[in-house]
Specification:
The chain has 644 residues and is of the alpha/beta class. It folds into two domains: 2-280, Nitrilase/N-carbamoyl-D-aminoacid amidohydrolase (4-Layer Sandwich), CATH 3.60.110; 319-643, HUPs (Rossmann fold, 3-Layer(aba) Sandwich), CATH 3.40.50.620. The chain has 20 helices and 20 strands. The chain has helices spanning 21-37, 62-78, 170-173, 178-184, 202-216, 269-278, 319-343, 357-373, 392-404, 415-425, 434-455, 465-470, 491-503, 507-517, 538-542, 545-557, 562-572, 579-595, 597-600, 629-643, and strands spanning 6-13, 42-44, 85-94, 97-106, 109-115, 141-144, 147-150, 155-159, 162-168, 189-194, 220-225, 241-245, 248-252, 261-268, 292-295, 348-352, 380-384, 408-411, 457-461, 483-484. Helix 2 links the parallel strand 2 (42-44) and strand 3. It is elongated. It starts with 5 loop residues before the first strand and ends with a helix. The relative contact order is 0.08. The mean pLDDT is 95.
Length: 644
């Protein structure tokens, strides 16, 4: 999976024998072997996992410390043939002090030792009685088990694009965690060895803390905390472990288990690195500390991808979250339009109503904006413009929809004007070329613009993000408006937004909106079939929007290569599309995205809603004449493999 930018990481919570390093070594060896079997490249254990965190004054006993070193030697020997990097928690003596450390090992070698910086000494914690802070460390190296090993907090472990750092428990909870500096010096994965006890409310707080640190450092954060066998006297530990990537939870374990447990996830390192490259604020004040980099070799698992990606990346998974997101998006759209209307002195709004999803959403946004600033609904002019491909279903829905909201309905039949125009330019009426289709689209736009001029109004655009990405719009036709409210709403999200509004509407409005939702997506520029049904279905021509929105998200949000997008789509849509279908439509996406940039370079103003926008004034600055051959070549290589 490394060729796609993934590395598999894990967190072990070992069944603990308190103050018995020899027994703990046996359990840890068993769990490391299991981790290696699962194809994990890097795995961590909890804080002081070799001894136990709650040994208290036993840390002052030479026997415990000596046996922990013996346990380390046993683990090194037992795992030297495994292709895995393990991080162990144990006490280390150096510079006349004891340090609470994370020890990274691989193939019988100690790679480096990282001591804890912030040593808690409050409430139930008394660590300063036994451990010093890394700020008191003098040495840069230590001789341990006949190996000379780097020690310090300024150590990172690096294998090409993968770089990881270590911090320990309290380090995360302080104002300036060491992982801040680790990330600024290149660490894209952070491991935290922890012993965090449980009290009411701490579980959610801990998760939020890990999530936020992962988000603000744009990194993966792997957290492993001591299990319930660590518990003693007045405190209880739960063995919480979790894996976050850029603030999003990938995996967490079941707490309060007596037995050892292991979780793992595939970290998308290339995605993390791409996010960092985009965010020019990320590299702030780096500081003067000189970091040391330990060269490592991380195993590349051949296992299937362990994580899943949503088929609808723009749409929240749960119904509750979808409702929250829809409300927020709809409010953003309406508020942005309201602001423009206030600037222009509350003009009328003119909109073409087709009986399709995009114009329905745009109309609903206008209604909400009018409510927000107290405008009369009659000042919304909904124009239906039946043409050669208009069906009775869409026409009736368009008319009924406008009237249900008390708006002004205008009807302009464009057929005669289009026929005259075709005669003027010498186009045969039976010619079903692109000129035949675009004649209608441009005629409709001319009508809307002229009505707006006549009424002193504003033409509101209806086109969505997906159409703009694919160039599925007529240049200076439906491509143009005076303000566009759907410009950063992908097609797969439009449907959810419209349904959300419908679900909260009056019954009479619900009926017509639900029927619009059930209507096939079509520009209706070609005549219907003999039964009067829509003949020209968009997705049969350019491909399924569920795929195109998936491609768009990973292509623009994370700069993923076509090869990687294909790999992710294979895993995500394995039960919906064949490999050949995915490849076919991905090639269409690449070609259309590149060749249609000239349309995006001159789009009207439109509110940015999500993390992806195609406005040349916002998120996408791209030459219209860029070659797409290197992107297409990757897919052609895959095509050759499929043909074998």
């Amino acid at each position: 999976m490394r060729e796609y930018g993934f590395v598999r990481v894990g967190a072990i919570v070992n069944h603990l024998a308190l103050a018995n390093p020899i027994e703990n070594a046996k359990e840890i060896i068993k769990m490391i072997k299991e981790a290696a079997k699962q194809g994990i490249g890097i795995v961590t254990t909890p804080e002081l996992s070799l001894t136990g965190y709650t040994c208290q004054d036993l840390f002052l006993q030479d026997c415990l410390i000596d046996k922990s070193y013996s346990a380390l030697k046993t683990i090194l020997k037992a795992t030297e043939k495994l292709n895995i990097i393990s991080i162990l928690g144990m006490p280390i003596r150096v510079d006349n002090q004891m340090f609470n450390c994370g020890v990274a090992i691989s193939k019988g070698k100690i790679l480096g030792i990282v001591p804890k910086t912030y040593v808690p000494n409050y409430s139930e914690f008394y660590e300063k009685r036994w451990f010093g802070s890394s700020s008191n460390l003098i040495s840069n190296e230590i001789n341990i088990l006949d190996q000379t090993v780097p020690i310090g907090t300024n150590i990172l472990f690096k294998d090409k694009e993968v770089c990881f750092g270590i911090e320990i428990c309290e380090d995360l909870w302080c104002v300036n965690p060491p992982s801040n500096a680790h990330a600024l010096h290149g660490a894209n994965i952070i491991f935290n060895l922890s012993s965090s006890n449980e009290v009411i409310g701490k579980y959610e707080y801990r998760k939020n803390l890990v999530s936020m640190q992962s988000a603000k450092t744009i990194s993966a954060y792997i957290y492993a905390s001591s299990g319930i066998m660590e518990s003693t006297s007045d405190i209880l530990f739960s063995g919480a472990s979790m894996i976050y990537e850029s603030g999003s939870l990938l995996k967490e374990n079941e707490r309060f288990s007596v037995d050892s447990n292991l979780i793992y996830a595939d970290i998308d390192v290339s995605k993390i690195n791409n996010d960092r490259n985009k965010n020019i604020s990320y590299m702030g004040v780096v500081g003067d500390e000189q970091y040391r980099y330990v060269d490592i070799k991380i195993a590349d698992t051949k296992e299937n991808l362990s994580r899943t990606y949503p088929e609808y990346p723009f749409v929240p998974k749960t119904e509750t979250r979808r409702d929250e997101r829809c409300k927020e998006i709809f409010t953003i759209q309406a508020s942005a339009l309201a602001r423009r209307l206030l600037t222009l002195g509350k003009p009328k709004c003119v909109i073409g109503i087709s009986g399709g999803l995009d114009s329905t959403l745009a109309f609903l946004v206008i209604v909400e904006a009018f409510k927000k600033i107290g405008m009369d609904m009659k000042n919304i002019i909904g124009v239906t413009m039946p043409g050669f491909g208009t069906t009775g279903r869409t026409y009736n829905n368009a008319c009924k929809f406008v009237l249900e909201y008390g708006a002004t309905l205008k009807e302009v039949d464009i057929k005669a004007a289009c026929i005259q125009h075709m005669k003027d330019i010498g186009l045969d009426e039976n010619d079903r070329s692109i000129a035949y289709e675009n004649t209608q689209a441009r005629e409709r736009t001319q009508i809307l613009m002229d009505i707006a001029n006549k009424e002193g109004g504003l033409v509101i655009g209806t086109g969505d993000l997906s159409e703009l990405a694919l160039g599925w719009c007529t240049y200076n036709g439906d491509h143009m408006s005076m303000y566009s409210v759907n410009t950063s709403i992908p097609k797969t999200l439009v449907r959810y937004l419209v349904r959300w509004v419908a679900d909260t509407s009056e019954e009479s409005k619900k009926e017509v909106i639900y029927d619009i939702l059930d209507t096939p997506i079509s520009p209706e520029l070609l005549p219907p079939d003999e039964a009067g049904n829509i003949l020209q279905e968009t997705e049969s021509h350019i491909g399924p929007y569920v795929l195109h929105d998936f491609f768009l998200y990973h292509f623009l949000r994370y700069g993923a290569t076509p090869k990687k997008i294909y790999y992710l789509a294979q895993n995500t849509f394995k039960n919906s599309f064949t490999d050949e279908e995915i490849l076919k439509w991905l090639k269409v996406f690449i070609k259309r995205f590149f060749t249609q940039q000239f349309k995006r370079n001159c789009v009207p103003d439109g509110v940015k809603v999500g993390s992806i926008s195609l406005s040349p004034r916002g998120d996408l600055r791209m030459p219209s004449d860029a070659s797409y051959q290197i992107w297409l070549k990757e897919l052609e290589e895959i095509e050759k493999e499929l043909e074998k």
